[in-house]
Design goal:
By secondary structure, this protein is an alpha+beta fold. It has helices at 101-108, 112-119, 174-180, 231-243, 251-263, and strands at residues 2-9, 11-20, 26-31, 51-56, 63-69, 74-79, 94-97, 122-125, 138-144, 147-154, 157-162, 167-168, 272-273, 279-289, 294-299, 306-309, 321-323.
């Protein structure tokens, strides 16, 4: 359960909510250009683009959930259970395990166009990183300031979709989400006008027995906008809030606005109970400025926005840099 968005207002931003019932040992990780990336079936990359994102702690390989590289290409993996289908390594293909896909594409591609071209020859395989870490069932969203694509490895093969919405959630497939948005043509952020009945059928002004239909509250243009936490509903609401988002064109307000968009579809503990009786919640939210390489994040327990600047690290180095998350709430006392 996750939601991913893009946001462009001067600079270009890429954000996501990680919705899980557990922590996966995540921390902010910077992979410098000279950190050797070893792949199961491909040549290893001694040199590649630097990247920053949230990853499971591993000194051997950055297990990114999402990341952005120094060229402004962004990528995130989102849960896609039951639909994701992986194959065995094949001769003549660039074979990549699910956990290798983000480091490979962000390490070798400067744009979504380059990534889409590479994906034509990629076979996504189902090898596990370790016995305790089986392959996750995922689909992926890639984006830069020029556009976005969705990648789904299903039984029919790898499908690549143009994503003009700049939004992705979970099941069903992206094709469904794209079609489902048509069910909300009537929703508006503006002050609504009645379309329930032709105006010529209303009685003359002053008739008391048949009142005109008029809004009685602000926000009634959004009636029909879903508010539950299903992936289809989160897709619709995130797209609506993003498309109608307005803020000043500066870093502080852009970052704040990205988090407000993500907050509109975030999960509080207790609102979603899994089949195992556990609670799905938004363990962290992040927003990366793809133009500057600054990665912002907050956690469920600490709503303060934290920042890590990739370009302040030694990007020509050969070792991963990790920043642990602060999960305890910080409250500023004013008296």
């Amino acid at each position: 359960m996750c939601t991913c968005i893009t946001y462009k207002n001067g600079d270009f931003y890429f954000g996501r909510n990680m919705d899980l019932e557990y922590s996966f040992g995540e921390c902010v990780v910077i992979t410098p250009r000279s950190f050797p990336l070893h792949f199961r079936h491909n040549r290893y990359l001694p040199q590649h683009y630097a990247m920053i994102g949230m990853a499971a702690g591993s000194e051997a390989f950055p297990l990114y959930a999402e990341a952005v590289n120094e060229k402004g290409l962004c990528m995130a993996g989102l849960n896609f259970p039951g639909n994701a289908y992986y194959r065995k390594a094949a001769v003549g293909k660039r074979n990549l395990a699910t956990y290798e896909l983000i480091p490979w594409l962000l390490g070798t591609c400067a744009s979504t166009a380059e990534a889409a071209e590479q994906l034509r020859d990629i076979m996504i395989t189902g090898e596990a990183f370790s016995e305790s870490m089986p392959p996750a069932q995922l689909h992926w969203m890639l984006a830069d300031r020029e556009g976005s694509i969705v990648v789904e490895s299903v039984r029919e093969g790898i499908k690549i979709y143009e994503n003009p919405f700049g939004v992705l959630t979970n099941n069903p497939s992206f094709e469904y989400h794209r079609t489902n948005l048509n069910n909300y043509l009537n929703v508006t952020a503006g002050y609504p006008e009645s379309g329930f009945c032709p105006t010529e059928l209303f009685p003359v002004e002053g008739a008391s027995y048949y009142p005109r239909l008029e809004p009685y509250s602000q926000g009634m243009g959004g009636i029909g906008l879903p508010g539950d936490f299903s992936s289809a509903s989160r897709f619709v609401k995130a797209a609506f809030v993003k498309w109608n988002s307005v803020c000043a064109q500066n870093e502080e307000e852009n970052v704040s606005q990205c988090f407000h968009i993500l907050d509109s579809v975030a999960m509080p503990r207790g609102a979603v109970i899994t089949q195992d009786g556990k609670y799905d919640l938004t363990t962290y939210s992040c927003c990366a400025n793809a133009d500057t390489g600054v990665y912002y994040f907050k956690t469920y327990g600490n709503s303060q926005i934290n920042a890590v600047d990739m370009r302040k690290a030694e990007l020509d180095g050969n070792a991963l840099t990790e920043y642990p998350l602060e999960t305890g709430q910080k409250i500023r006392a004013l008296n």
